Amino acid sequence: SFRGGELPLTLSGDLVAALEALGRRGGATLFMTLLAAWKTLLWRSTGETDLRVGTPVANRTRLETEPLIGFFVNTLVLRTDLAGDPGFGELLGRVRRGTLDAYGHQDLPFERLVEELQPERDLSHTPLFQVMVALQNDPMPDLDLPGLRVRRMDVESSTAKFDLSLMLERTAEGVAGSLVYASDLFDASTAGRILSHFRVLLDGVAASPEASLSALPLLTREEREQLLAWNETGAAAGGDLCLHELVEAQAERTPQAPALIAGADRLTYEELNRRASRLAEHLRGLGVGPEVGVGVFLDRSADLVVSLLAVLKAGGLYVPLDPAYPQERVGFILEDTAAPVILSRESLAGRLPATGARLVLVDRDAGAWSGGTGARLRRAGGPDHLAYVIYTSGSTGRPKGVAIEHRSAVALVRWSEEVYSPVEISGVLASTSICFDLSVFELFVPLGRGGAVILAENALELATLAARDSVTLINTVPSAIAELVRMGGVPTTVQTVNLAGEPLQRDLVESIYGLGTVERVCNLYGPSEDTTYSTFTLAERGPGLPVTIGRPLAGKRSWVLDGQLSPVPVGVAGELYLGGEGLARGYLNRSELTAERWVPDPFSAEPGARLYRTGDLARRLPDGELLFLGRIDHQVKVRGFRIELGEVEAALLRHGGVRETVVTAREDRLVAYVVAEPGREPAVPELREHLLRSLPEPMVPSVFVRLAALPLTPNGKVDRKALPAPEIEAERGFVAPRTPVEELLADLWAELLGLPQVGVEDRFFELGGHSLLATRVVSRLRGIFGVELPLRILFESPTVAALARRVEEARREEGAPAVPPIVPVARDGELPLSFSQERLWFLDQLQPGTAVYNIPGAVRMTGALDVAALHRSLAEVVRRHE
Predict the structure, then answer these.
(1) Three-class secondary structure assignment of 704-740
(2) Environment class of residue 290 by beta-carbon count within 10 Å: exposed (0-12), middle (13-18) or buried (19+)?
(3) pLDDT one-digit tens code per residue, 759-772
(4) Rounded to an integer, what distance in angstroms lies between the CA atom of residue 177 and that of residue 407?
(5) Contact 298, 304 (CB under 8 A)
(6) Chain centre to alpha carbon of residue 349
(7) Are 585 and 403 a contacting pair, CB within 8 Å?
(8) Segment 564-614, tens digit of pLDDT
(9) Global pTM value
(10) Inter-axis angle of helices 800-813 and 771-785, to 10 degrees?
């Protein structure tokens, strides 16, 4: 809009004299020295090493033009390469050469340059450069005109031609001028910080002209003190307790209170504690103790929670294993942890790889410990011993185990006491796999504080969960809660929603509060390496800026640093480092990687204090809140799952038919670009099957794109920006739906997958489907057909035809009538009912207030629904449009 503001700047005579002397030593003018410093500030603020800045030039280079009256001023673009973190003296030389070269061509009009280069034009910014710098080094003399008294007037600017304009003038006292800023982009406080950083930087240049650009100071003393103050978070007061001891203490306080609801099983604290103690005593007899891992390979039942607690009581550390994981991955984890014992059940034992570990089946072998006393066991370990090891994706092609000590997990529980009331944690939905760190909050925060754990297969099961009305807190990822809100699956008893694992969008916050029953939406951030959560904020109601990830939890620290581990200014992007209580011991059996990611804490006086390099980009806002900006590497979050793209690529390259591959994330899908070996063209099902042998389903790309060659940059690296957008196509020819159920399912899949059409032989996962979309399909099956089918149905019946058969079988078993043909309905603004699509399907047994589904999409009817009137209206519509 060209609206602008202006702030004054003055540089003292002593500082300017020092800068002029520095310039003379390098054959540079004061303008060149100031320009080099200004570009240093821009580099430190943006990380960009190829910078273009505009400057006005008098363009009176010929003697003949001196006496002429007219506008000869031209604009030059001064381009500088700041790569390599040079010393300021070296940069000044680069700026000098670039400036002199530009002066040599100053008679070429700027408009002609734009015309020749043809940059992309955009009304939001000027072409070629967006920052202007000018130094008037020939001050206007005093005018002595007869009959006139002349004096200078400074006029404040309210317009901004560029994003930033640094306008300076050499005066007898030094340098004076101003910074004009576009107020659509910057506010006055930000512009003020830019000027204060420029002054500090110039002082640093004058004092240490040969210092590298990254070593020059930027922050004022007040800013440094503020950053320290934002990290004064106190302590979480974990004490000398272990994680299971919090549960034991709670069992002594409230033995008859409900502790665990898992389907039909309901355990009090006394029952849960006694069952876990009996199993723990048996595990000790098998040699389980401090630093000894126990694999837990169980489905989501009461036995799962009992087993985790029993391992901790025995003094060991639990190693979570998901029964849905490929055998190869489970085998790697067991080998890496050297777990001598595995807890499982008889129905799952056949999925385990062959190992030398002792297999304990909690159902078949329960008689071996059921006669135990269940009394509290003597303490076998302390807070410095490991509580669990969770494996995350690894960039080298193999997963890495994050080793968490008891003290870190206890600190998480203690922090929750400051943030969540007893009512909020009285019923916590536990829907996350124990292989992901969100489960630590879901299980041990309620159990350590007297709440109840309500176990579910996944978050979307909440809509039909028998104990749904006991849930007061949901802890999940944004994509899952968005679907729960869409399907009306959030119970009115839920007071608090915790969201983590993905960036949280403002419109989702508003839709959650729009339910009218949720009182708090909390946005949390943290990697497994810092025990689940590191920062926290309460997302307030109302539109506004993007949702932040908040500030550090009690006892934790967060720093936004540059490559030299120096704090960056407020508003500037840097890498997020985490410290304080909660840090993991490191990666199990990966000392080199541990040393790379955990570095000495330069801001702590505590011996041995460390910081964890997250690899995440963030910037701090003026109020101290942190804004998440993305990754600096090739790690991604897809539907809350943390995925190292390098691990997926390494697994693909192990296929004999793949010569080269690149994996990227697009929206909520992984996309694999594959270059086949000559003479080999592996089909998509073959590649998927290959990956599923070693990777969990969320890490398997939804879409595969075949390329003759990967696009490369001029220096030979893969040009990820040039990878083509994927086109999802079925491997088989299109087969049209043949029955009403197939037609409804095909339309439903097309809607959810974003495709124009789906054939009955097309496979869900080959069309770009994934686990979250699978849960949405199952949820919609319940609403459309009135049948309850398990999530695994799409893995067992992955085509429209196969799923249609399962739906019809389920309806017959429940005695439901056959699905009638779809009624065609033409769009017409005068229709008595408004439909968003051309086709509507309805059931005769509609009840008041139920949803009338049209495929794709749904029309939600409010209030009582007159089924007879609806039928009459539809009949009239059909009659009018036959």
Answers:
(1) EEECCCCCECCCCCECHHHCCCCCCCCCCCCCCCCCH
(2) middle
(3) 888 888 778 787 77
(4) 56
(5) yes
(6) 35
(7) yes
(8) 899 999 999 999 999 999 999 999 999 999 999 999 999 998 999 999 999
(9) 0.79
(10) 40
